[in-house]
From TrEMBL:
Residues 2-50 form the BFD-like [2Fe-2S]-binding domain. It comes from Pseudidiomarina halophila. Its cofactor is [2Fe-2S] cluster. Belongs to the Bfd family. InterPro entries: BFD-associated_ferredoxin, BFD-like_2Fe2S-bd_dom, BFD-like_2Fe2S-bd_dom_sf. This is Bacterioferritin-associated ferredoxin. One of its GO terms (molecular function) is metal ion binding. The keyword DNA-binding does not apply. Keywords: 2Fe-2S, Electron transport, Iron, Iron-sulfur, Metal-binding, Transport.
Length: 74
């Protein structure tokens, strides 16, 4: 879905920016894609999509980097 109509930015674009480009803040999103830089109507929706994407990225990172906790006693 379109998040920012003024700049034509979708939720998919925001998720890709978070996962592939390391975007983590509204400032970075605004600088790179212009989100919320014109009318500002998209700000809260963009922030929500960004927050969710960053949480998912961080959770995935922790799951991939944590050492296995299962121990075999045989
Ligand atoms: S809809 Fe994003 S700046 Fe207007």
């Amino acid at each position: 879905m379109y998040v920012c109509l003024c700049k034509g930015v979708t939720d998919k674009t925001i998720r890709r920016a978070v996962n592939d480009e390391g975007v983590s803040s509204m400032r970075e999103l605004r600088q790179q894609y212009g989100v919320a830089s014109q009318c500002g109507c998209c700000k809260s929706c963009a922030k929500q999509v960004l927050t969710d994407a960053v949480k998912e990225r961080n959770t995935r990172f922790l799951e991939e980097t944590l050492l296995p906790t299962a121990v075999c006693y045989t």
